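Let us begin with a simple case.
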Amino acid sequence: MNRMDVVEAILAARLRKGLSWADIATAVGSSKEWVTAGCLGQMTFTPDQAAVVGDLLELPAEAVRLLGVPPYRGSLPTAVPTDPLIYRFYELVSVYGTTFKELIHEEFGDGIMSAIDFRMDLVREPDPAGDRVNITMSGKFLPYRQY
């Protein structure tokens, strides 16, 4: 069994049991965004968190153990994503990436926004013209240092 086998087992069990990602996150005790990323093979669960996911989804012991192994991060099968929803994020970075970079450097100096010390919140925003997706991303600023 490998990490992708675990991801497939989680996806199948979640559907079979009729659970939402928020349901799983509540059981684990962390955000739906982080738990979903973990279930999709991108985060490392603690042994206790892995046990909760394993019990809830009735995963085999080997799958539960793999949930605690640091993953190879980056889950896209191609350099340019082909899924339309994921492609929009690629498009967003292609169009606004240089703007993000300039404004972050102007505000904070020479550095990056961490994707490790990071949080995200995704909520539905009602709008009469069609509901909107509101994603808030917050990453610690990490300045480049001289040495």
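The second case is a distinct protein. As before, the sequence precedes its structure tokens.
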Amino acid sequence: MTQSTDHGAYVQDMFGRIAARYDLMNRLMTFNQDRAWRRFVVSKAAPPPGGWLLDIATGTGDIAFEARRQVRDLHVVAADFALPMMRVGQQRPGADAVAWQAADTLRLPYADNSFDAVTSGYLFRNVTDIPGALAEQMRVLKPGGRLVTLDTTPPPHNLLRPFIQFHLKVVIPTLGRIISGEADAYKYLPESTLGFKTAEELAALMRAAELQDVGYQRFMFGTMAVHWGTTPKL
């Protein structure tokens, strides 16, 4: 997910500790909407049948499995540096159809122009160098390849914001303590949401990286967003 710095080591350890209950917590925190968002990610990535897709920060492989479900004969590489998360994913039905690999998003172990699409879920809020992560994903994408990412975004300033903040700061840590026994991890995750880039700011970083046709769509009262862009064609 992120680089091997103190922050990276913290994130790596945190996701390792919550791996066993991560999927259950995602369903509870998002009211089971996260599955629809991942379907949308794959539809925007639009990898060709028989093509190659890299799902970086794959976690337990939700996006990777969805890509295999949607696209015929797709070659899917599911990569992460949180190995306990991937071990959970490798126990899921259909895991043998996915290539699981350890990888750091700032030093991807793949050749230039290797993939038709690169997807990620909840990656960018956990890296300290977003432009570096974008550059690496663009490097491994083929010309005209698609980059699509799902992530949280700070809630908009409207009448719902106090209720959303209560959900993030109180409800989610409480659920995390009850379900996973890791209240600290589920304090970090909401804090990283509130401190992350707005959807507009992340889109601007993608354009600055020279991605083309950048767009995004918000979900869940504006607290989630899927962003997409295309690498320049030759």
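The beta strands are 52-56, 75-80, 99-102, 115-121, 141-152, 212-219, 224-230. The chain has nine helices and seven strands.
Keep these points in mind for the review questions at the end of the chapter.
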